[in-house]
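Let us begin with a simple case.
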Amino acid sequence: MLNNGVMFQFFSWFLPTDASIQGSEPLWVFLEEQAANLSKAGITAVWIPPAYKGLGGKSSVGYDVYDHFDLGQYDANSDEFSPGENRTKYGDKDQLLSAVKALKSNGVQVYADIVINHKFGGKEEDYFWKAIRVEKNNRNYERRGNCFECGEIDVKGFTKFDFHVRGNEHSSFKWNVCHFDALDTVTQISQGGNTWNGSSEEFIDPNGDRKSKYIYRFLYNEAGWNPPEKSFDDWVSLEKGNFDYLTGNDIDFGRFDVREEIKYWGQWLVDEIDLDGFRIDAVKHISADYIREWVGHVRAKTSKSLFTVAEYIAGGTTPLHDYINRVSATGSFPQNISVLDFPLRFKFKQASFDNENYSLPDLNRGTLMAEQPALAVTFVENHDYEFGRDPDSKYNVYPSGQNYIDILLKLRSQFALGEEWYFEEKNIVGWLRNGFVSGAKGAMVAVISNAPGGTVQSIQMNTGRKNKKFYHFATLKLFAGQFVVARGPYSLFGDRAGEIWTDSSGSGKFLAEGRTASIWLEEDAVLN
C-alpha cells in the first residue's frame, strides 16, 4: 500500500445485485464511474469483492467459490448451476477489466479478494471415499469405536468439478474428492454394508436423533500418491483443536498438485486483471507456510511487489504476531505481509457500548496498531461483522454522513504525516503528528473524548512547537444519527473557542467536548 494510503472496501455483504445506490447497474460499471471521485477523495487503493463465479451465481457475494477462472465470462446455463447468465453478482469480465483500467488511470491501486480455502457447487462424486467423523468443537477428536458413524466410513459429497462449459481454457485441472481433505455436507454414507442418503443441509441417522451437520475428514489419497494419508494442515489456528476446516469442500494443501494449481491461478489472476495486491480470506484456516509459498510465487512470477493483507480473525494479538512471524520471518523465502487489526475493531465495538466507562487508553493496548503498527491495517467495520450478520458483534450505533469522511481523508493525506506523539487519560486521548516531512502541511493535533456530551475535557500535550498558536479546525460529533462537522470557533470552549497557544516549552492544553473528536491545526496551516 502507498505511504499513508487508504484502502476502500467497495462492497458489503448485503449489497443487492445492481443496487439502487449504485444506479441500478452492475457494481463494476459503478466502480468505473466512481474511479475519478475515489482518487480525488484521497482513496489510494480499492479492495474489490471476489470476482469469480460462486455457487450462488448472480446472487453470490463471492465467498462460495465455484470456479476461480470464471470472472463472469462463461454461460452457467448448462453447467452445474440452474439457468443463469455469464455475469457474477458484480457484472461480467469486460466490465471488471474496464473498472480496473479506470481506477489505475486515476492512480488508484486494485486489491483482489483471494478465497482459496474451499470450494462449493460441485456435482455429486462418482464414488465413495474413506473418511472419519470429527467433532465440530474439537477437530482432533475422531469418532472411533463400534457405533453408527464410528471408525472408517465411506462418504460421497459434492466434490466433482469438471467445468465442462469452460472446458480446459485457462486451466485443464479438474477437481474431485482427492483434492479436498474434509467436508460437512454428504449425499451418502456407507458403513458395514449399509448405505444411507444424506441431504444438502444435514444428515439424520436412522433413529432420527441427529439433526446437525458434522465434519468428515478424508483419510487417504489415491493409491500411489505421496503422501498416502491425508491430514489437516499444520500452522493453522488452534481454535477447536485444529481450525483447518471452515466450510464447504476444504482444499487439501498437503497435495503438490493442488498447491501448484492455486499458485498458477494467483499468477494468472494478477496478469489477467492487472492487480496491485491482495486481501487474503480466512488465513487462520490455511497453512501459514502455504500462504508464504503462494505469495512468494505470485510475486516472483509477476515481478510485482503486490501489497498483501491477511484476514485473521482473532480477539487478541498473540496469534497475529505468530502468523506474521511464520510468513514474514521463516522459511527459505519469507514474505512481508500485513494483517487486518481485528483486536482493535473489537475494542471499538466495546467502547461504543461502554461510553464514559470505557478507558480510552485501552484502544492503544493489545492491538496490532499498538504492537506492530507498520503491519497493521486498521478499520472500523467490514463485511465480516457488518450490521445484520452477527448480533453479538454489532456497534451500539451506526451513524451516517459523508462530510466527516471527506475531511478525515484529506487530513490523513495532508497532515497525518511525520513523527507521532501520543498522550492519554482515562476519558481523553490525543495524538500529535509533527509534520516536518515531504508533503506535510504542518502539525496536527487530534483529541478524542468519551466523557458525557456537553462537558469540556482537556489534555496536556507537548507539541515541540514553542509559543505557537493552534487553531480549532473542526469538531466531529454525533447529532440525530449522523456525524456532523462543526468548523471554526467552537463556542463551548469559551475563551479558547478558536485557538490554543503553547507555552515556552511547547506544551498546551487541548480541548474536546465529551463524545466528540476535535482537530487542531498549526497556525497558517491550511487544508486544501
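The second case is a distinct protein. As before, the sequence precedes its C-alpha cells.
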Amino acid sequence: MARLPRMSQTINYVLVGPRSINVAALIHIGRVHFINMATEDKAKEGVPERSKENVERAVTDQTAKKQKAPKQPRPPKEPKNVKPSTIKPAKAPSTPAEPLDPDTMFKEGWLKAVHAERPAEHVFTRFPPEPNGYLHIGHSKAIAVNFGFARYHGGDCYLRFDDTNPEAEEEQFFVAIQEMVEWLGFRPYKITYSSDNFDKLYELAEKLIAYDGAYVCHCTDEEIKMQRGGPNHGPRFACAHRERPTEESLAEFRAMRDGKYKAREAFLRMKQNIEDGNPQMWDLAAYRILETPHHRTGKKWRIYPTYDFTHCLCDSFEGITHSLCTTEFLQSRVSYEWLCDAVKVYKPMQREYGRLNVTGTIMSKRKIAKLVELGVVRGWDDPRLYTLVALRRRGIPPGAILSFINELGVSTALTNIQIVRFEQSVRKYLELTVPRLMLVLDPVPVVIDNLPDDYVEEVELPFAPKDPAMGSHIVPFTKTVYIDRSDFRELDSKDFFRMAPGKSVGLLKVPYPVKATSFKKDETSGRVTEIHAEYEKPPEGESFKKPKTYIQWVGKSERHGSPIVAEARILNSLFKSEYPDAADGGYLNDVRDDSEEIYPSAMIETGLTEIRLRAPWPEEAGEQHMKKGCLTGEHSKDSRVPGFETVRFQGMRVAYFCLDKDTTADKVVLNRIVSLKEDAGKAA
C-alpha cells in the first residue's frame, strides 16, 4: 500500500486565524470523507468488500421500490366457500443479531492499512497519557486502538505516563489511569514513565546542541510570538540567540540545569526551520525551567523536557513500531521525525486517526473541576459525567465501551457522536448480557382482599427468558403486592390497559389476573395510598379471560425478605443542549435542573440477592475472573473484587440499573444505566 504523504518543507500550509493548517493533510482527511460517501469507482477502491456489497444492495433495493411493476391480468375469483390459506408468512427471527466481531476495526479499514505500511515482526505500541486528570470516554478509543492493535498482531503495548510536568501531576491520576486501562481488559507489557529517561533525554539534548541543532533562548513569550508572525501573521524571523556558538548554548543549558535562571528566563529551543510552513518546525521548545519538585525524581531536576522533545525519543527508546495518535498531532509528525533524525536514533512510524468526541457533555478537565468545586456533581466519578470512572460508576460495562468503539471503526475523520447514539449501543449490549428483575420506582400497595392474610404462592421467574443458562429464581406472590404508581389510574379510559377500578390486569408470571375494586387517597396530597383488588382465579374447570396487559410487581413477605427497598437515581443528561459550551452564559448556565431524579423508596424483588452473589454481570473485558460473593466501592484496594456497579440488571418495563458505590449493608442505592427503548413513550 502506498505510504501516506510525508510532510516536509515542500508541503504548503495556510494561515487561518491564529492557526496554520496543513493543506495536504486537509486534502487527505477530506478524501477519507469522500470515499465514505462516493459511489464512483475511485471511491470504491477504499471501501471493504462487505461495505460495497451493502451499498450496492441498498441502491438496488431503492431502485426496485421506485420502479412500478407491470400490470398483471386479474386472477379468476375464488369460489365463495373456500377458506383462505392458513399458512402465515414467516416472521423475522426474534433473537437479537449476532454481535459484531470484536476485531473488525483491526481487520479492515485504516488500522489494517497502517499495519500493512509497516508489518513489523513484533508490534510495539504505547498508550502515553499525561497524569494530570481522569481519563474520559475519548481516551477509551486511544486505549482500544493502541492496546487492541498490539494484541491483535501478537505484539505488546506499553502504558507510559508522560510525567514531564510536575506542576500538574498527582498520584490519584496515576492510580486511576492504570485502573481504567485494566478495567477495559488490557494488561500493559510494562508500565513506564517518561521520567525514567530524564538522564538519557538530557544527554541527547546536549548532543543536539553539539550538532548545532538546539540553542538557549532568553526571549519572552511575546517576542517568540512575533518571531512566528505575530497576531497579524506577518513575516517570520529567527530568534536573536539562534546563531550563538554551540559552546555558549551548551554552557547556558548547563546553567539552566544548575539554577542560574528562574522559570521563563531561559529555554532550550530546537533549531528547526522557521521558514517552513508547518508551525511544528518553528524552533519548538525542548526544555524549560520548573521549580516544582517531581513526584518521582524529587528535587534532582530544575529543567524538564517538553512533550515535543520527550515523546518521539521515548517511543524510540522503547522500540515502538507504530506510534498511533490522534489527528491533532498530524503536523507534529514532521518535528517527531526531524528530532529522531537529528540525534541519530531509531525512528518509529507515527500515524494519526480521528479522535472521538461525544456531544451533549463536556470533557475539559478544567471545566469538570469547576463542576466538582461548585457541587454541581458529586465528584469526578459522578455518573452524569463522561469520565471513565464516572461511566464505570454509572454501570456501563467495559465490554460495552469496547463494542461501541469497534462499531464506530477507526479512520482519519473526527468522530462526533451524540449521547443517544452511545446509549443505544450500551442498551443493545446490556440486552444480551444482564438478568431481568421486577422493580417499582414509585410503589403503591395493592391489597388482594379475597386472599388469606398468610397466602404465599412461590412464582418462578427466569433471569433471562431467551437465555436459560442465566437460570431462574423464586419470588413470593402474597396478599399484598406493590405496583408502580404510574400503572394505576383513578379514572379509566379506552387507551389505558393497566390497572383501574373495575379493570382486570395481569401481574407478570402470576397465573391469574387481578381486578381493582377500590382505592384510598391521602386527603392532603391527593395521592393514592392503597388499592384494593380481587384475585380472579376461576372455579375449577373454568377458563378465564386473558388480560390485555401484564405489569411488574413486588410481593410483601417478611419470610422471603421481600421487598428490598432502594434509593433509585434516575440519571439524565447533565446539560440541556447538544453543545453546552456554546450556550448563553457558558456551560454552567446549561446545567439541567432534572439531571438526577431520586426515588427514595423504590422496591426490588428478591432476585437481587442472588445476582449480587453472582456478579459481575457480564464477565467480560476487565471484569473477568473476579471473586464471587463480595463487592467493593474502593477498586484500588483489590482489583479482583468486583465493584458494586457490576451488579447490573434490567428492571422490567423500567430501565437498566446497577448498584451504586453508596450502597451499604443497610441501604441499597441504584443508578439508572440507560433507559429502555420504550422510555421515549411508555406504552399505555
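Residues 441-555 form a domain with the Ribosomal Protein L25; Chain P fold (CATH 2.40.240.10). The first strand starts at residue 13 and ends at 16.
Keep these points in mind for the review questions at the end of the chapter.
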